[in-house]
């Protein structure tokens, strides 16, 4: 019987720090990162989909990140399973540790499940079957957990930062340069793209000074922003529901609480003196160190 390849999987709700933790761990364990966020497969909306910048990757090789053309169709979970098989094989041949990071849990389920049925969606409310608990890879699952009110406050602040960094202009240019499909698919499903669709059909990006806008335009913009936040919050709830379902199915998922670190991140965003350094110290102590221990124990276990 062939030994299963070892792999680390970083899970969690959107905005919970999966990208940052995966880079920290990859540097510690000489790993390469495979993206499992379906919106980050595509090029063209780097700010909107919150792709890690080259600087944030800190020299760690990343796979399936910003590689697809915006007009490429939706990547199914079955296609993802095949794509990542190849990436894992290449990484292990280089004697590196494969590390999967992202929030698309339907993909995370499809990849390691020994028995995978692409027809039946295991996370639907009416799914009557059981989720496969036998895995074809030897996986170390780490779930970054953040208390919901704290995460929601952080996500609201993060959206404000993204907008100041050019998210709105990026979405407007995307709409202008690409033809929208009849039904949203692929990157067109990215949160922010659809929410600003109605706004951009009426208002052009020729006047971004909100002080000059009339009340109707201001309200249209605020409506889109509210929708982005509401849909982001709903996405996090759906992501956690899926992780819990995998846990209940017998997947050994280690939960690590990052709430304290995110409280400090909120303080830092509000420019509390010394909060940024404190946040990093808490991140290292409360999240990174426990995760390093989890992975060390996992790697020390014999390969079956």
UniProtKB/TrEMBL annotation:
Gene Ontology BP terms: cytokinin biosynthetic process; tRNA modification
Example of a GO cellular component annotation carried by this entry: mitochondrion
Pfam families on file: IPPT
GO function terms (MF aspect): AMP dimethylallyltransferase activity; ATP binding; tRNA dimethylallyltransferase activity
Keyword terms of this UniProt record: ATP-binding, Cytokinin biosynthesis, Nucleotide-binding, Transferase
Protein's UniProt keywords contain ATP-binding: yes
Keyword field contains Protein biosynthesis: no
SUPFAM superfamilies, per the entry: P-loop containing nucleoside triphosphate hydrolases
Stated family: Belongs to the IPP transferase family.
UniProt protein name: Adenylate isopentenyltransferase
